[in-house]
Structures are given as C-alpha cells and as structure tokens.
Prior knowledge:
By secondary structure, this protein is an alpha+beta fold. The protein has helices at about 50-65, 70-85, and strands at about 1-10, 15-25, 30-40. Helix content is about 25%, strand content about 30%.
Amino acid sequence: MKWKILDIYADGDKVTSARYHASETDGENTVETEGNWHFEGAGEVPFDKITEDLVIAWIEQESTQNGTNPIKCRLEEQLAGLNKSKQVHPPWKPKTFKVTV
C-alpha cells in the first residue's frame, strides 16, 4: 500500500490532523482513496522534525484496531472486486470501435 500526505494541520507545534491519499495495486488494477485523519494523540515531536513517514505511521497506528486497518482492508476489498468483475458495454451507449494502425 502506498501512502502520501497531502496536507497537515496543526495547533501550534502539535499536528492535529492530516489529509492523505492511499492506493493499492496488483500490477493490473489500482484503487485509491483520500481522507482526513484527526489525531487522538500525535506524538510530541518538534514540528520541524516531523516527516511524511512519521505522519503516515501515526495514521496507520491510530487507524489499526484489533490488528486490522480498515483503510487498507477497504482498498484490498475494492481491488478484489475489480479482479472478479468484467467491464461490459452499457446497453444505452452506442457501440464504437477503435481503429488500430
């Protein structure tokens, strides 16, 4: 799973929340999500020492309960669903074709 922190919010030197992007891929399909995480108790790390990896670790730690991370689970479920289903042409759209040269 890949994480990216898009924004962080702070009250003084304490990070209070972060906006994240997470994605999961199996080589053929990719699923993505974005969300906001409000920290219950982000560590007492000086603001200038905070890294993206540290914020990601905080989100993973706080969101994991009973050994399960719902963010990761939902992405894996969506990816599995994509692999089970096949895209079909909607009956209300005109059929088109591609010319390959």
